Amino acid sequence: MLTNQQAQDLAVQAIERARRTGADAADAVYAADTALDVSVRLGALEDVGRSESAELGLRVFVGKRTASVSSSDLSEDALGALVERAVAMAREAPEDAYAGLAPAERLLHGAPPQLDLDDGGEASPAELREMALAAEDAARAVPGVTNSEGGGASASRSLWALATSHGFAAAYTATGYGCSASVLAGEGGAMQRDYDHHAARHRRLLDDPATIGRRAGERAAARAGAGTLASGAMPVVFEPRVGSSLVGHLIGAIAGPAITRGTSFLQDALGTEVFAPGVTIADDPHRPHGLRSRPFDGEGLPVSPTEFVSAGLLETWLLDSASARQLGLEPTGHASRGINGSPSVSTSNLYMAAGTVPPETLIGEIEHGVYVTELIGMGVNGVTGDYSRGAAGFRIEGGRIAGPVSEFTIAGNLKDMFRALTPANDLVFRYGSNVPTIRIDGMTIAGA
């Protein structure tokens, strides 16, 4: 893998060639990745996989015409051909009034923030195998577990560099480690599956594999022999690991491209109350060794902590440069860039702030309801906000979590769900997107 400086220099070289070949402006990204994955099942090694990739993506502008190309062949001759092809394609492309690089005056200047994303380490196949075995062994040791889908462990290092003809050039690396286990409990038609996993930028921050496995086994065993749920309107409580999907639907609805196309159920909601006053949803790209931390966005703009929803009020859209131009606004530093194509928008370490009520209190106030630990399918309409998903979890009876249930559907409209949402006080930063336990009253349940 190249060094940060070598990767940055390669991206700069590509845009300089593009300018000499006739492009009015250009940007280039270089992405490289090495990854090692090990999986086991029933105590035996099942698979060892290693991957390595390196690719350069180039986007050029000729007036308001643009084209993007990419290549994994980084030789001098291939780079020259790539540039010529990109400029020729741009000259034949249709004009786009909103195309262009991020404004030069908005680019990140000076050294990017140091976010401690690379621990400098690596893991051998033997070490990953021991981690995977430890996770699966702990899961299989839980009473009630009857079979296993396996355990896994992984280690990776990635490098990302971006350069633009407006004068920005920077690169950074990140490591990643993961461990998981997935097992089944029960017999025959009553068999249920569950899992646990954890990922971290630094190996020292990864949960103990045996702890991961034990949680997977306990979750599966608790779901064995799941019954059915009666239909009706009732409160729904979302476990944090599935509740994060709700903020994902919010982000999709406030993304600039959805607003410019008129395809968002929150199209006219900016500056209005979309959640209860106790709800704040924010993004923190500067979180040290965060799973989605980044020192700059996909267009070279500086990034900073942002509250999308503050005390229930929708404060901002997520805008890259193109959608900002179309809306007559400024980009917000949320551009995301792949190797191919134009930037889109994305968040970094997204989270819903903790509320003030313990989860036991949220549940204790419910006479009849359901605690959801798994969501199935993607029945969500981003234009209308209509929401309908299959689910599994546990009944709530008399303020207490009761027996497991499965094969039911929860439904509502996201506008109503957001306003009826109450967060608990148990927020933990564990994933790329994090929420506390969430309660939503008045959802429709379709059960047996």
From TrEMBL:
**Pfam families referenced in this protein's UniProt entry, alphabetically:** PmbA_TldD_1st (PF01523), PmbA_TldD_2nd (PF19290), PmbA_TldD_3rd (PF19289)
Name a GO molecular-function annotation: metallopeptidase activity
Span of domain Metalloprotease TldD/E N-terminal? 26-90
Any idea what this protein is called?
TldD/PmbA family protein
Biological process GO annotation list? proteolysis
Which stretches make up the Metalloprotease TldD/E C-terminal domain?
A: 231-447
Residue ranges of every copy of the Metalloprotease TldD/E central domain listed in the record: 121-223
Family label: Belongs to the peptidase U62 family.
| GO terms for cellular component | cytosol
